[in-house]
Structures are given as C-alpha cells and as structure tokens.
Amino acid sequence: METATKLLLYDPDHKLGKTLGACLPKASYKIRGCTAPQALYGALREFAPHLILLACKPIEEGAMLPLLALVRSQKYIHFALVVVLEHENERAEVHAYNLGADAVLFAPLREQPLNLRLQAIIKLKAKEQPQQKNVKVGGLLIDTQSQSAWLHGLAIQLAKREFDILYQLSQVPGKIYERAELLELGAQTNKAGALRAVDVHICMLRSKLPVKSIVTLRGKGYYLNKTKLEFMPREIGLAVSVSVGLV
C-alpha cells in the first residue's frame, strides 16, 4: 500500500487551499496548511512533509528570503520545495530558484498537470536524499529521522531547539559556528533576544553533555569538541547509576 504524500501548504492569503483540494486526489495526499511563518516552522518539525508549497506574490520578493531561509534551515528533514507565484514573473522566478526552490509554479494551477508535476518533483528530489540517517561524533549518536540523540548508548533528553543546535554543531566538529548560524532569525521579531536565546540553549546542552564538549570562542561563536565525546565521563556514569538506583 502506497503512503500518502504529506504536503505542507504555506498560504497566507487562503487562495491555494481550495484549489489543491479540488486538483489533487485525496487518497494520494495528506495536506496541512498554515498562514504564518511561526506556524510554518512548527509544522515542518511536527508534520515532516515530503513536499512544501509556498504561495508568494512577485511584488513581495523581499519576503521570500527569510521564508525560504527558514524552510531550508531544516537540514535533517528531506523535502521538495515548490514556490507558487500568483502570476508569471521572470525576476521573481529567478529569485526563488536562487533562494533554494526546487521548482516554481504559476497560478492558476490546473488539475492533471499539477498532480503529475508534483509527483515528478518529489521523485527527482528523492534521488538526492542522502542514505546516511545518523550523525556520529565520538560517542555521540544523532538520529535525524526520530530527532533523538544518545551518548555512549544513553538517551539524551533534548528540546527541539537544543536538537537543532546540536545537530548543526555536529556537522563539522571543530568548526566555529556563529550564534546567528545556530538559530534561524527569519521568524524572530527580536534579533537580540534570539541571539541571547542561543546562549541559553547552549547552556542547557552543556548540562547534558561531558564538560567542555561545547567550546566558546569569545566574539566568534561555538564549536563541538570531538575529543570530549570519545569516552564516557565518570560524572555521567555515576549520574546514570544513581538514576537507575532511584527507579
């Protein structure tokens, strides 16, 4: 039995929802809609779509940058990204592709060509999907599908944003990441507050990892210290023994 395609629709003007409902076979698609950037981010994590449709107006090219940056920041969720423009506009089309769109469609959308085109886009994107689902750094194992992490076989309880940051740091251990790289600012209304939030999340991560696993370089950012993750620290082993004894 084939699994229904999970389609996430960003439709701030409520124009595409009815069109998609009429054009796409209901048995083949599971559609979830949202109208605000904050809701889009939450849906990305909870819904884990195969395909995202972003409805944009050509006159709002500037709004595409934070929106597409927000979507593309979810590196461990593999999906096809399609921008839908309300009418043909070559400049806006080029802009969308430059910002990371896999395809650009123009309204009005027609039934049969739409379904076939979306399926073709999904199949093409699936060929790019990396086979490796886990990231391993020393004794740290990160599962990008379940969004879980283990340290020497012991599960680490992580909040969503903590997982995001740990995943980013683990991509290139030793590489310095600026705070702005570790937190998507596109959906934030207070940039200074968002940057301070990174420090809070880093502090929480440090409390769950061996000492000096995450190193601060003042004025530059943070990096993951692989050598501190190679062996089970004594304090973590003791903590696990105590917690098991209390169960």
Task: Give structural notes.
This protein is of the alpha/beta class. It has two domains: about 5-125, Rossmann fold (3-Layer(aba) Sandwich); about 135-245, Winged helix-like DNA-binding domain superfamily/Winged helix DNA-binding domain (Arc Repressor Mutant, subunit A), CATH 1.10.10.10. About 40% of the residues lie in helices and about 20% in strands. The protein has nine helices and eleven strands. The chain has helices spanning about 15-25, 35-45, 60-70, 90-100, 110-125, 160-170, 180, 190-205, 235-245; strands at about 5-10, 30-35, 50-55, 80-85, 105, 135, 140-145, 150, 155, 215, 220-225. The protein has a five-stranded parallel sheet, sandwiched between helices. Strands 6-7-8-9 form a four-stranded antiparallel sheet, covered by helices on one side. Strand 8 and strand 9 form a beta hairpin. Helix 6 crosses helix 8 (about 190-205). The longest helix is centred in the middle third of the chain and has 16 residues, at about 110-125. The model is unreliable at about 185-190 and about 235-245 (pLDDT under 50).
